[in-house]
Design brief:
The complex is a heterodimer of chains A (about 450) and B (about 400). Chain A contains 17 helices and eleven strands. Chain A has helices at about 1-20, 35-40, 50-65, 90-110, 110-120, 125-145, 145-155, 185-190, 220-230, 235-255, 255-275, 280-295, 310-335, 340-345, 350-355, 375-380, 420-435, and strands at about 25-30, 75, 80-85, 180, 205, 355-360, 365-370, 395-400, 405-410, 435-440, 450-455. In chain A, helix 1 (about 1-20) crosses helix 4. In chain A, the strands form four sheets. A four-stranded mixed β-sheet of chain A has the order 8-9-10-11. In chain A, strand 2 (about 75) and strand 3 form a beta hairpin. Chain A has a domain at about 385-455. With about 400 residues, chain B is of the alpha/beta class. Chain B has eleven helices and 13 strands. Chain B has helices spanning about 10-20, 25-40, 45-50, 125-135, 170-180, 220-240, 260-265, 275-290, 315-325, 345-355, 370-389; strands spanning about 5-10, 60-65, 80-85, 95, 115-125, 150-160, 195-205, 205-215, 245-255, 255-260, 295-305, 330-335, 360-365. In chain B, the strands form three sheets. A six-stranded mixed β-sheet of chain B has the order 10-9-8-11-12-13, with helices on both faces. A two-stranded antiparallel ribbon of chain B has the order 2-5. Chain B has a two-stranded antiparallel sheet with strand order 6-7. The longest helix of chain B is centred in the C-terminal third of the chain and has 20 residues, at about 370-390. Classes of the chains: A alpha+beta (about 450), B alpha/beta (about 400).
């Protein structure tokens, strides 16, 4: 198999290069189906142990056995990139998969979100995560499974609560505000003379002032807890930061899923079409696999209640290239994420072509199709992706006694939190913060409500 | 120009090694471990609900839901909505939405979990261990007292005995002692030899016979039997810790009494009235025929709804009194028709009388599953106290 793959790979790569795809070299590895299942469950080939992955693993196994899903490949961006191919893929399937992986590799080398996260975490996510896993295993040996699990329960529950804009490596907050000297040029003097300004109350030099922590609401909960928890051990902070680094890796994967899959599908289709070295039979088998994967979730006459991101992304890219040419497509793959991609390029006409519709579910469980409005449609496709798919929660204040005040931003979702789950998350957090934890939110009736742990 | 990629293949032996240490399986086992612990914290329910007492079964099966790893989530909205794909027009009604596995996503964590149930198997011995810890009971010692077993034990040495019981170390010491005095004496003489001696020593008996007697007349409902069965089951599990050897005997009665084996006992159904003395007579008879009270610890548990023929009062009192004189313990389990009249019945009075006469006896009312737990706890605690005092 390996020789056959090498042969196909070489030819496909030559073709890809000539078509303008540009990527870091990829290391392909054929692995067992079980390994593939685990990669899908853990998100990474080697990742820290946690019981919640076990639950997902069993679901995946059950679904796999019931024929719900088959995994062909998983690819990890980096330099070199790592791609895993499922043992049992046929040659035509693998031809398609290699072409698909080349598309992903090109995307992750150029897309701005990927570039930034790759620069920060160092182009070696697979090794990095394996390293984390090893450190955590060592922590289990040293501190016991129970204690490590307690930390992971909290850290993984807050996995989505990072601030990717502020970056992986951040300075601690300044403890004091900077000393500001009143500027004394002509303009400043004239300005001060304006009515209502100054009145001679401010001194010439504004002294250093102690700053509150956090100075402004902090959305990177993992970072904040790791750095400002009053009583955490070093190894516990280390685990929090390890989970956080992996979250920074996951963010672009999550935020560009439709674009990225669509791009890879566009390219595997295009490369196969132009691959004159494929035999007629192999080409037909490969294209059959393509149409099994890249199609609406439901077959022709049926209706699906969720669009297939592969198919959706693929169709948008085809439209872009048809209307604006390949060069602007290359540009879009650099600068967009799913939010701008859907907003800018999922047009009314395309939505109609794809038969996309909006629906609501009535109380009795029946589904009713409603009038489609393109803005509403786009919003609904993106609804599950805002803020890394999690409600917006920030740190507001830490009291002198160490009480941690969190707040949920009700305005960002208008729906409010699932209180039972929220309370359980606060319990996780309390076990590592080790002081009181409070969260302010808004309940069903729009009234303020504070959850406290311990109650 | 892109640098070319490389290809490798997971070697076969490599893969076997890998499957053996599957991380998914490892984390799954850890999940199960945690869930077992969680189940253990709900011991009372476990004990009352467990489908127990299959002959010789050493495990019980308990259905549990998967654990959820919680995250901040939005409240489920009243009006769910979404985007679908297909040829429809506004106003069309579609079928119910199937749970989609597209919801959620990588980094955001799996959603849509739930729905699958897991059947956990617990060893009964483990459950009893937990029970012991939960009730903070001391480890029970075999009971000293009425029942006694003779046991041969080693005690002292003798100059004569069987070859097999020759104590070589001891004999050597004797020889050395002798040669200290008689420096030129022979290495060994017959007088140096020491043999281990055996004596009979009375030991507290570690054998017990447990009588389970039950009223199977028509007034006992299925629910009553089920409660009694659950109680009996845990009683015998508890006593197993105390005695090396336990023989259960099952006696069912209406106006007459019969001995049954375990399986039949819980299925047998009689008709007619209730004469408790018939069961007590039967038990008394079995004791005198098969279980010498000087060698066996005797326990009697009697389950009934409390109704007994008025005319039977004296006879029942009398026969139960006879058992009480040889038994370690009498337990009465009542499954009353209504909770407020529990333990106010004719049969309860008979047991009360015996208890006031100085016998170790207790009465328990089983109204629902919770009271089974209470009864078991009361019984074990009582037993433990008695052993310690």
């Amino acid at each position: 198999m390996v020789q056959a793959l090498e042969q196909i790979g070489l030819q496909l790569e030559e073709l890809a290069g000539s078509q303008g795809l540009d990527y870091y070299p990829i290391h392909f590895e054929e692995v067992s189906q079980n390994f593939m299942t685990e990669i899908a469950v853990y998100g990474l080939p080697v990742r820290m142990p946690h019981w919640s992955f076990g639950v997902r693993y069993i679901y995946q196994l059950v679904q796999h056995r019931m024929g719900h899903s088959r995994l062909f490949e998983v690819v990890f961006p980096g330099n070199p990139g790592c791609a895993y191919l499922a043992r049992g893929n046929s040659i035509p399937e693998n031809t398609l998969v290699i072409a698909h992986v080349l598309g992903h590799a090109d995307f992750s080398k150029h897309n701005i979100l990927f570039k930034r996260s790759q620069e920060e975490i160092g182009y070696r996510i697979v090794e990095l995560a394996a390293n984390h896993a090893q450190r955590i295993s060592a922590a289990i040996d040293e501190h016991g499974q129970g204690r490590v699990e307690q930390v992971l329960d909290a850290a993984l529950a807050l996995e989505a609560h990072v601030d990717t804009f502020k970056g992986v490596h951040r300075e601690l907050y300044p403890t004091h505000s900077a000393e500001t000297r009143r500027s004394d040029d002509a303009f400043a003097r004239r300005y001060r003379e304006l009515p209502g300004e100054d009145n001679g109350l401010t001194e010439a030099v504004k002294p250093k002032r102690k700053m509150p922590i956090p100075p402004i609401p902090e959305h990177d909960l993992l970072w904040f807890i790791a750095n400002y928890a009053p009583e955490m051990d070093g190894w516990e902070r280390d685990i929090f930061l390890a989970v956080r680094e992996e979250s920074f890796y996951f963010y672009p994967v999550f935020a560009c899923q439709i674009m990225n899959e669509g791009w890879a599908c566009y390219w595997h289709a295009r490369l196969l079409r132009e691959a004159d070295f494929l035999s007629q039979g192999d080409y037909i088998d490969a294209i059959k696999t393509h149409s099994d994967v890249v199609r609406p979730h439901a077959a022709d006459s049926q209706v699906a209640l969720a669009p297939n991101p592969y198919h959706l992304g693929f169709c948008i890219w085809e439209k872009i290239i048809e209307e604006q040419g390949i060069e602007s497509a290359f540009e879009i793959r650099c600068n967009d994420d799913d939010f701008s991609f859907i907003r800018n390029y999922l047009t009314r006409e395309l939505a109609d072509e794809l038969n996309l519709f909006e629906y609501t579910v009535r109380r009795d469980g029946s589904v009713e199709v409603i009038e489609t409005d393109i803005d509403g449609l786009r919003d609904m496709i993106l609804a599950s992706k805002y803020n890394f798919g999690a409600p917006v929660v920030s740190v507001r204040q830490v009291d002198p006694d160490g009480t941690l005040h969190l707040a949920h931003d009700y305005a960002s979702d208008g729906r409010g939190l699932d209180l039972r789950r929220t309370e359980r998350v606060l319990e996780y957090v309390h076990r590592v913060w080790r002081r009181d934890v409070r969260l302010e939110t808004t309940d069903l009736r729009g009234a303020k409500r504070t959850l406290r742990v311990p109650a | 120009m892109n640098r070319p990629s490389t290809f490798t293949c997971f070697e076969d032996d490599h893969r076997q090694w890998y499957d053996l240490f599957s991380r998914g399986a490892r984390d799954w086992l850890r999940h199960n471990e945690k869930i077992s612990k969680a189940v253990r914290d709900k011991l009372p329910e476990l004990i009352a609900d467990a489908e127990v007492l299959g002959a010789g079964d050493t495990t019980v099966k308990v259905p549990v839901r998967f654990m959820e790893h919680f995250r901040f989530r939005l409240r489920p909205s009243d009006e769910q909505s979404g985007v679908g794909q297909g040829e429809v027009k506004p106003g069309d009604k579609l079928g119910k939405p199937a749970p989609s596995d597209q919801a959620g996503g990588k980094g955001a964590g799996g959603s849509g979990e739930g729905g699958y149930e897991l059947l956990l198997e617990f060893k009964i011995d483990d459950i009893v261990d937990w029970l012991w810890e939960e009730l903070k009971l001391p480890n029970l010692q075999p009971k000293p007292g009425s029942a006694v077993d003779d046991e041969l034990t080693r005690e002292g040495w003798n100059r004569r005995g069987a070859r097999s019981r020759l104590d070589r170390r001891r004999s050597m010491k004797e020889a050395i002692k002798r040669r200290l005095v008689d420096v030129n004496g022979p290495a060994f003489v017959n007088d140096d030899l020491r043999y281990r001696q055996l004596t009979r020593k009375p030991q507290p008996a570690t054998k017990a016979v447990v009588f389970f007697a039950m009223d199977v007349s028509s007034s006992m409902r299925d629910r009553d039997r089920q409660l009694a069965k659950t109680f009996f089951f845990w009683v015998i599990q508890g006593l197993r810790r105390q005695y090396r050897h336990i023989e259960p005997v099952f006696v069912a009665h209406t106006v007459k009494a019969w001995e049954f084996d375990e399986r039949e006992f819980f299925e047998v159904r009689g008709s007619g009235g209730t004469v408790a003395s018939s069961a007590f007579e039967k038990v008394d008879q079995i004791i005198s025929e098969r279980y010498d009270p000087s060698r066996y610890n005797v326990y009697l548990f009697y389950a009934s709804d409390g109704e007994n023929f008025r005319d039977d009062h004296d006879a029942a009192n009398d026969s139960l009194g006879r058992i009480a004189r040889v038994a370690n313990y009498l337990g009465y389990v009542e499954t009353p028709a209504s909770a407020d009249r529990a333990l106010q019945t004719e049969t309860a009075r008979i047991f009360n009388a015996v208890q006031e006469g100085g016998a170790a006896a207790s009465s328990f009312a089983l109204i629902d599953n919770d009271s089974v737990w209470d009864a078991i706890r009361a019984f074990f605690t009582e037993q433990a106290k008695e052993t310690v005092s």
